[in-house]
Design goal:
- Helix content is 0%, strand content 52%.
- It is an all-beta fold.
- It has two domains: 2-31, no CATH class; 35-158.
- The strands form two sheets. Strands 5, 6, 7, 8, 9, 10, 11, 12 and 13 form a nine-stranded antiparallel sheet that branches.
- The chain is elongated, with a radius of gyration of 20 Å.
- The chain starts with a strand and ends with a strand.
């Protein structure tokens, strides 16, 4: 084992290298790193022409970047969702959302609504919600999206994997 600085170490063994940060216990071992692509899918009622999903997973933290061009069915009334590469951790205290960096030609924006990309524990989807006063939230439907639009989403979340 070679100690790098303070309580960080890198070891080279017969099965490869390991990195430990903040101590020498199993909990401090960096043993899960992955980068990849996936194709996010919308719930029914939305047709995507271009969808790009990239993620980096370090331990139980997943960082995602999504770009999607879409056209929605104006009569669809189901909850609007978009898939994620990993399930969201089952921890209601840490329930959160992702950032919507850009959205174009979305019907609901023209009525001064706030759009939120919500993450719920034990799901592999982003749930889109909207509000006009931040006091109460309603589920977005494909009907709220419009046609020939584009959305960019990014952020990090915890997973059980």
């Amino acid at each position: 084992m070679r100690q790098l600085a303070g309580s960080a170490a890198m070891t080279f063994g017969p099965t490869g290298a390991t990195i430990q940060l903040g101590g020498f216990t199993a909990a401090n071992k960096l043993d899960d790193y992955e980068e990849g692509n996936w194709t996010p899918t919308f719930s029914s009622g939305v047709t995507a022409s271009t969808v790009i999903g990239r993620y980096t997973k370090v331990g139980n933290v997943v960082t995602v970047m999504i770009r999607a061009s879409f056209s929605a069915t104006t009569t669809a009334t189901n909850q609007l969702t978009l898939s994620l590469p990993y399930v969201v951790k089952n921890d209601a205290a840490l329930r959160g959302g992702l950032s919507i960096g850009m959205i174009t030609k979305c019907t609901i924006i023209s009525s001064s609504k706030i759009i939120y990309a919500q993450l719920d524990p034990n799901f592999t989807h982003i749930f889109f919600r909207y509000s006009n006063n931040s006091a109460s939230w309603s589920a977005m439907t494909p009907n709220d999206m419009g046609t020939n639009g584009e959305i960019h989403i990014s952020g990090s979340y915890l997973t059980n994997s």
